[in-house]
Amino acid sequence: MGAVWLETLAGNLIASEQIQKIHVGTRNDTRRLFVNLVGNPMREEVADFATRFQHAEKLGPDALKRAQESEAKAARAELVVALDDARRIADTLNAPHAVSYDHGAGRWRITNLVKNAGVTRAADEG
């Protein structure tokens, strides 16, 4: 059975089995997506959407915060799907795979860690 890993914003790979909760930050962190790990109270930051709307000059501060929170919530739902897809692919190929967020493309990327090839299945942008 192939293992599935999640790449954090710091570049750390964590086993998907260690993920207890995937959530959007609170207060000033609403643009960020975090995971809590089983047996570890520390939060690992997975994605940050601060620059996504940075040049949206027509948005006021409150509207910008709501837009970033909405984007992070959508990414949370897409991450759950990407992890399930990665599990299926890893089991089929019997090779470890990693899920990471591609900020440039605005979607999750699934990568075969053995081949380190572009084996990807990405969620389309909304």
Question: What key attributes describe this structure?
Answer:
four-stranded mixed beta sheet, single chain, 126 residues, alpha+beta
The gist of it:
The chain is of the alpha+beta class. The protein contains one helix and seven strands, in the order βββββαββ. The chain has a four-stranded mixed β-sheet with strand order 2-1-6-7, with helices on one face.
Describe the structure.
With 126 residues, the protein is α+β, with helices and mostly antiparallel strands. 26% of the residues lie in helices and 32% in strands. It contains one helix and seven strands. The chain has one helix at residues 61-93, and strands at 4-7, 13-15, 19-24, 32-37, 40-48, 97-102, 107-112. Strands 2-1-6-7 form a four-stranded mixed sheet, covered by helices on one side. The protein has a three-stranded antiparallel sheet with strand order 3-4-5, covered by helices on one side. A hairpin with a 2-residue loop joins β4 and β5 (40-48). The longest helix is centred in the middle third of the chain and has 33 residues, at 61-93.
